[in-house]
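Ticket opened by: R.M.
Priority: normal
Category: complex prediction / small molecule

The reporter submitted a protein together with fe (iii) ion and asked that the result be attached to this ticket for the collaborator who will pick it up next week. Submitted input follows.
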Amino acid sequence: MLCTGETRVSDTAVVTGIGELATGRPQPVENSSLEARRPRGALSVLRDAAFVVQDGHVAWVGPAARAPAADTLIDLGGRAVVPGFVDSHAHLVFAGERAAEFEARMTGSPYTAGGIRTTVAATRAADDQRLRANVRSLVAEMARQGTTTVECKTGYGLTVEDEVRAIRIAREECDVATFLGAHVVPTEFSGRGDEYVDLVRGPMLEACAPHADYVDVFCERGAFSEAQSRLILDAAVSRGLPVRLHANQLGRGPGVQLAVEYGAASADHCTYLTDDDVAALARSSTVATLLPGVEFSTRSPYPDARRLIDAGAVVALATDCNPGSCYTSSMPFCIALAVREMRMSPAEALLAATLGGASALGRTDVGHLTVGARADFAVLDAPSYLHLSYRPGVPLVAGTFKRGLLVAEGKAQVKLGE
Ligand code: NIG
Ligand code: FE
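Result attached by the on-call engineer:
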């Protein structure tokens, strides 16, 4: 059997009885190293499929009738399997919550970047143990909903010391760690934004860089201007750190064009785009990461995914899990929103939540289940991946496997290990 926890009792397992196996097929474009790291792809759906897991990776995929022998057999009884979701945008290192702010929004107040400062105060007051426990609990919550790869940003510390502990925790508890010292200008720098930018691009970046996979900037009215964003992006690039941006969330602005100009891995939010922004994304290897939970939770217009896809941009879906603009950890919820509200087909939404997220993180080993991929997958208590959007709000994930090991069970009555 495959088992939970750290122990692995079997090196080879065949997963069979899969009603429907939906897996992205990465399609790297030849002759471009950037494209190869951020592959486009297509969804392929196999019925009555099986696959073999060996040493935590997919070793074989094909019709169940032709499955090779293995040490262990896991029969899923007709359930669907999808690649584990890749949540490429989340802010998990924080303390406290902002339900009252959400209530105010739902009764007419607009979302502004300023609310971030409330969480900064709570985060600074919390000790490492508390912050780490919160991250762990959110990562576990994500796993119960099928997520196997998590990107986590800092951005609620905003002093050198608090950002360093945040990036360390992000690195230790999540798959990808992003330094977001440029989240908002903290209260003590009020009216001195440029001085804060100098702190971020100087000592703060210096201290956080060893632990960071990416540098992010919230380029937006109320956060950081184009000129300030450039200074921080330049500092990241000169250290050889790849960048990503929060761009065009609250209005049109320079964020998306900056992301493309700097070769950012992703431009995230993309809620308000001009035709030029769409064209720039389509021409680039920068992934457009859409976060529909934010529009839901801030009662804002949804980005138009159809426009981006039709133009040829690579699109990812992520939760943006954070205590302010969107406190959901559920990729299935985001998939359902994307299909209902953003003109994405169910196949496009699943692809964006798996291979799209992997592309946004520059990862080729996750987000799909072709031979050689990490055996990260979610078993649905449903016959087809279509149910992710067809049955919104229903906890369909029966079990989540990471590197072939069961890491979370969504429903106690489904015995995946037997
Ligand atoms: O992605 N936009 C900036 N940061 C987060 C919100 C953080 C907060 O409101 O606490 C976001 O929406
Ligand atoms: Fe965000």
